[in-house]
């Protein structure tokens, strides 16, 4: 792996986490280059963010009657062409099959706005906020994990951060703080993977989770 890591970022929406990565690369705080952005949604604003940063982008929607395996096989070919060191799922709203994941073993990472084992799947922030309002949880958080298989938001932990709710929080203010935590944690984790490698990053994650 070179000193500057090659990142392919998969998105489905606004791409605010993509923007955090692009900004960190441009500022020199992340020794990486986003070599491609791929979206399954043509209307995703993240594509405009890629264009603004002069990063190649690919729109790759799901075609009618296309199986998940067929889609992922073609997606893997597209991603492979950019020779990534890491594949980053930053708001990618599709579950990847082993057809894709087997092409990039231990090199696909996902950001999820919840703590390990809590609120897998979609609308995690809203679900956590409602659970807090019902006094079911004292806090929530954000995690970055490996995606080794087809499990939903349950791969080996790479990094996490607790986000405490505040009495004055509305859903909007809470969501804003969660997104800030996402941006910081994702960049921090990618940096650790590049600088320290996978094994060291996972070791640090285990130590941090025990302290939390």
Describe this structure in words.
With 212 residues, the protein is an alpha/beta fold. It has 2 domains: 1-104, Rossmann fold (3-Layer(aba) Sandwich), CATH 3.40.50.170; 112-212, Rossmann fold, CATH 3.40.50.170. The protein is 41% helix and 20% strand. The chain has a 7-stranded mixed beta sheet with strand order 3-2-1-4-5-6-7. Strand 1 (5-11), helix 1 (16-27) and strand 2 (32-39) form a beta-alpha-beta unit. It is globular and about 50 Å long. The model has no long low-confidence stretch (mean pLDDT 93).
Q: What's the arrangement of secondary structure elements?
A:
Layout lengths: L4 E7 L4 H12 L4 E8 L6 H7 L4 E3 L8 H13 L5 E4 L8 H4 L6 E5 L11 H10 L5 E8 L10 E8 L6 H26 L1 H14 L1
Helix pairs in contact: 1-6, 6-7
